[in-house]
Amino acid sequence: MPRKPDIAQQLLDSALSLFAERTYEGTQMPAVAQRAGVGVGSIYRYFPSKEALGNAAFQYAKRGLLDQLNDALVEGGPVHTVREEFGRFWLGFTRYAGSAHDAFVFLEHQQHDTFLAPESQALAVEVDRVASDFIERGQRSGEIRDGDPQQLVALAIGAFTGLVKHLRPGGIGKLSPASLKVAEDAVWDLLHRKADS
Question: What pTM was estimated for this model as a whole?
Fold first, then answer.
């Protein structure tokens, strides 16, 4: 027998696609239903409000990013330098932006403070903490420049997000490995403590 479609997942995927195109604020529930190929009433069986759908989409996207980062960090065994760890973070971000483009755009190009529930905010803080912890370790080792860790994270992620935005519609996947390496080195230069600093 054919598998029954996962309506909740179809709705999440459709919502993320529309949020990426139109923003959360600019997306209406009937458009999500139409994109998912279901009746409008079906949405409310799974998500009782637009805010509930937005939070589910945000949590799904943030968990996907966190999973991709964690996978990249353990890939290839232990890291030996802060620069190598940065390369693993870069790998995680590029894989996520390439495989989940709509989710990445939704997370990084929009404001979410109008609808995020406490559990969504806690997940956002968890992801931010992973990045800030990396910066703090790099500062302690002398490999990353002085400065507020959250500010340095914002600069690095902002540079990566700008790159993804610049590359649309083809996204990060249209960059060659050599071009990705050039971009990685440039973003690392934002963070790296120079020898004379």
Answer: 0.89
